[in-house]
Amino acid sequence: MGNAIAFDTYAYVRKLRDAGLTEQQAAIQAEALVSLIEERLATKKDLAEIEAVLKQNIEKIRSDLQRDLEELDAKTAIRLNELDTQTQTRFKELDIKMETRFKELDTQAQIRSKELDIKMETRFKELDTQAQTRSKELDIKMETMFKELDTKAETRFKELDTQAQTRSKELDIKMETMFKELDTKAETRFKELDTQAQTRSKELDIKMETMFKELDTKAETRFKELDTQAQTRSKELDTKAETRFKELDTKSETRLKELELRMVIKMGGMILAGIGILFGLMRTWPLPVQFVPVPNQELRQTVPQILPGK
After folding, report:
1. Taking the model in full, what pTM does it have?
2. Exposed, middle or buried, 223 (CB in 10 Å: 0-12/13-18/19+)?
3. Which of 32, 200, 205, 226 is the most exposed place for a label (fewest CB within 10 A)?
4. Are 12 and 33 in contact (CB under 8 A)?
5. Tens of pLDDT along 39-97?
């Protein structure tokens, strides 16, 4: 898994060993703990994959609901068209039959037309009443069917909507709980690493300050020795000529510059070694570490003065 949290197995083994376990037992426990962390601890990448899968599932549910609604609308429209077509066909058949019957009756009853006028009128009224009654019954049945379909569709939509909302809330609660647990673990680990880095920084500061003090002491002692030697040499050379004094003065200054250069080179080497140690620590703990600047050490150099002879 990417972005795994670093675990200091060496420090863990050392603590177990200090607690009384053997080296082998401590190493086995450290390996088991590392394997458990790598298997159980989720990363941001794992959470992103889970979130993507959840979004895909929610989108799929929405697509299925939309498809079911479209299919239900299509079936309802087809059924309405079929009922309309059947009703129109039935009316046309009735018209054709009635017209045919009227023509037959007209042909057969030309002689009895007067006698049958009253009967035909009555019959027409009855047929008209029956047709109207049949039409109203069909209208009532169709309206009832439409209401039942609307009620069923609305109930089904509400159930699906409720299920989707419940599932979404459960997923939100689980994801929020997982994020809180990860944040707590990460914050605890960062605090531990920060504490270790600060402790290590203070130890390095103390060591560097001690080294600089020792170098100051050695340099001051060496300069005093050189000063004493130069003064002794100056007294011995008082009897020599003024030209010799100038040559010795020039040589002493050259020698002091060389010593100063050597001390600067040594101090630079010590500083580079300290910087190397700090870079090593920064690679071990990849966290920003604030180092307390060590105050500049002033090296006091005593330049021997060669006095000319009296």
Report:
1. 0.22
2. buried
3. 32
4. yes
5. 666 566 666 776 787 778 778 878 888 888 899 989 999 989 998 899 889 888 988 98
- Dig out the tokens for 265 from the structure: 């080179």
**3-state helix/strand/coil string of the chain:** CCCCCCCCHHHHHHHHHHCCCCHHHHHHHHHHHHHHHHHHCCCHHHHHHHHHHHHHHHHHHHHHHHHHHHHHHHHHHHHHHHHHHHHHHHHHHHHHHHHHHHHHHHHHCCCCHHHHHHHHHHHHHHHHHHHHHHHHHHHHHHHHHHHHHHHHHHHHHHHHHHHHHHHHHHHHHHHHHHHHHHHHHHHHHHHHHHHHHHHHHHHHHHHHHHHHHHHHHHHHHHHHHHHHHHHHHHHHHHHCCHHHHHHHHHHHHHHHHHHHHHHHHHHHHHHHHHHHHHHHHHHHCCCCCCCCCCCCCCCCCCCCCCCCCC
Residue matched to tokens 């794992």 = 46
